[in-house]
Amino acid sequence: MPNAEQVAKANLFREMHQPGTPIVLVNVWDVASARVVAAQPVTRALATASWSVSAANGYEDGGGLPLDLALVAAQHIVTSTELPVTVDFEKGYAATAGEVHANTLRLIETGAIGLNIEDSIGQEDRELWSLPDAAARIGAVRSAAEEAGVPLVINARTDILVGGGSIASAIERGNAYLDAGADCIFVLGVEDQALREVVQGIGGPVSVMAGATSPSIAAFAAAGVARVSFGPGPMGVAYAALARLATDVFDGAPHSPDLAYRPGMA
Q1: DSSP secondary-structure letter at 188?
Q2: pLDDT at res. 199
Q3: 195-200 contact pairs (CB < 8 A, 24+)
Q4: Long-range contact list for 103-110, CB < 8 A, 24+ apart?
Q5: CATH at residue 194
Q6: How many domains does the chain fold into?
Q7: pLDDT the model gives residue 252
């Protein structure tokens, strides 16, 4: 029998994807970061970032992190909070749709209620699965979710723009992924005027990644975006602060009041 709480969280998280009123996800990578973000009153759900989880464990992103470690990290984060947790599952840690199916079942066992899955093959995010193969892999995720009885929220990422592809191709892939069972389409690298074209062309919620030079959340909302995440950016903010501290203390600067801060342990 599926876990009723997990099912309820998945359905709740899906409802948070409203075009024009996006769910904002400050990505986490371990239990401490998850507790810090979850403790903020504005936080409605948590999302991991594969780059950050990989880096925290000493591995390269893009499939370098072993699946077993990825699942352990996911489970630790899920059990540290009452909020819905969606997991950046990279490329499914699998070469075939059948393996994607099996690995998704294992991810669902961690208590995760959603996942990101990419259509790129290599670490550089430029070589893509063919459209039929990429859609089949998304279909395998949906099939696993149905088998487990958990309405997993699938955020299907296309990297076609990163590799120099067209907006039209991004829209084509997005709609094909929705047909294959995705709930939301994550278009990596979309920006400026192209964003509105993508949002209007894809027949479902659109997800984007924000960074240091990207538009404000309000601007994304005005474009009709339904989901905004920050990828490895939050880890960058945390460790940039750590680097500054290391420099400051050796330079004799006044001690930061942040030295007294601790993640909640409850």
Answers
A1: T
A2: 97
A3: 195/220, 195/223, 195/225, 196/223, 196/224, 197/167, 197/171, 198/167, 198/170, 198/171, 198/174, 199/19, 199/223, 199/224, 199/225, 200/224
A4: 103/67, 104/140, 104/141, 104/144, 104/145, 104/152, 105/144, 105/147, 105/148, 106/67, 106/71, 107/71, 107/74, 108/6, 108/144, 108/145, 108/148, 108/150, 108/152, 110/71, 110/74, 110/75, 110/78
A5: 3.20.20.60
A6: 1
A7: 86
pTM of the predicted structure, to 2 decimals: 0.95
Evaluate whether residue 144 is within a structural domain.
yes
Instruction: Read off the DSSP letter of residue 44.
Output: -
Helices 167-180 and 193-201, packing angle to 10 deg: 30
Residue identified by tokens 């949906």 is 142
Question: Does 167 map to a domain?
Answer: yes
Q: How would DSSP label each residue in 72-98?
A: HHHHHHHHT-SS-EEEE-TTTT-SSHH
- Return the residue matching tokens 């990505």: 27
> 15 lies in a domain?
yes
Taking a C-beta distance cutoff of 8 angstroms, is the pair 176, 156 a contact?
no
Q: Give the Å distances, CA to CA, from 193 to 118, 156, 227.
A: 24, 22, 18
In this prediction, residue 265 has a pLDDT band, given cuts at 50, 70 and 90, of low
Beta bridge partners of 23: 227
**Structural domain that includes position 231:** 4-260
Residue 237 lies in a domain: yes
